[in-house]
Amino acid sequence: MVSEEIRTIAEQYDIDLSKIKGSGPNGEVTLEDLEKYIREHFLPKVREERKVFGIRKVIAERLSKSYREAVHVTLNMETKIDNLIEMRKKLTEKLGEKPSYTVLMLKCIAKAIRDFIEVNASMEEGKIMIYDNININVAVDSPIGLITPVIRDVDKKSLEELLQDYADIVERAKSGRLKEKDFVGGTFTVTNLGMFGVDSFTPIINPPQIAILGLNRITQKPIVENGEIKIASVMTLSLTFDHRAIDGAPAARFLERVKYYLEHPEEVFESE
């Protein structure tokens, strides 16, 4: 007889208990069996584990004390969005619907994360865990406030799959139907305040992750390019990172890579 606790947890993850091979009496599914199944199917696979020692340990201890008195480090970088806007028009013709800018940017961000996988990590108990799965928490407005459900394996999904996942997450968030499985296993967070007219802000890290990227509003402004003034659609990217786990230079290089893919979306969507 399966306990009520096991049934409740299984329901939160939409798990069919009949598909789990039980190790209890008469093949009964135990709590350990269920926990193992959840780890294998909902949590990210660890790519590598690095111990924090030496100078990095000293830096971590000092910055941990500093963090209790201040916020993590935030970098802001401006990027042109004109090419992404054009790409959106092409994809709209192909898909028959307008893909949201958030989803298009998620694809670009996931590709940049794959290039700089060290930002796809968490830090707990003196260890930096770098993950292979790119599971992005996306901040969504809901009746109970801003929440961050997760979309799994963003880099591996087609644009159509990602659009479906995002629409499902937003719809269930607004109707209060998200489950526990929607909040576990995230490795990086993206929050978009552009729709509220925000030009830049300081995103707060989603612990135990080490980084969060804030997206701001797209606006037109004059820029100087090749000695000429032109009007361009631009947006500011706001990256907050945990300085205990990553230094400013690699964080800046990652942000530059995000900027590059947003400005060269053909390298992201050429196969879509």
Mean pLDDT: 90
**Percent strand:** 15-25%
Using the coordinates shown, work out and report the CATH topology of the largest domain: Chloramphenicol Acetyltransferase
CATH class of the largest domain: Alpha Beta
Helix and strand composition category: alpha+beta
Termini distance? Answer: 48 Å
Main sheet overview: 7 strands, mixed
The whole-angstrom Rg is: 21 Å
CATH architecture label name of the largest domain: 2-Layer Sandwich
Q: What is the count of structural domains?
A: 2
Low-confidence stretches: none
Return the string of H and E elements.
HHEHEHHEEEEEEHEEEEHH
What is the tally of beta strands? 12
Domain Peripheral subunit-binding (PSBD): 1-38
Protein name: Dihydrolipoyllysine acetyltransferase
Family: Belongs to the 2-oxoacid dehydrogenase family.
Cofactor: (R)-lipoate
Question: In a few lines, what is going on in this structure?
Answer:
With 272 residues, this protein is an alpha+beta fold. Helix content is 37%, strand content 24%.
Describe this structure in words.
A hairpin with a 2-residue loop joins strand 6 and strand 7. This protein has helices at 4-12, 31-42, 54-67, 82-95, 101-115, 159-174, 248-263, 266-269, and strands at 46-51, 73-80, 121-124, 127-131, 136-138, 140-142, 145-147, 150-151, 188-192, 211-215, 219-225, 228-241. The longest helix has 16 residues, at 159-174. It has two domains: 1-42, E3-binding domain (Dihydrolipoamide Transferase), CATH 4.10.320; 44-269, Chloramphenicol Acetyltransferase. It is an alpha+beta fold. The strands form three sheets. Strands 2, 5, 8, 9, 10, 11 and 12 form a seven-stranded mixed beta sheet that branches. One of its GO terms (cellular component) is cytoplasm. This is Dihydrolipoyllysine acetyltransferase. It comes from Thermococcus litoralis (strain ATCC 51850 / DSM 5473 / JCM 8560 / NS-C). Its cofactor is (R)-lipoate.
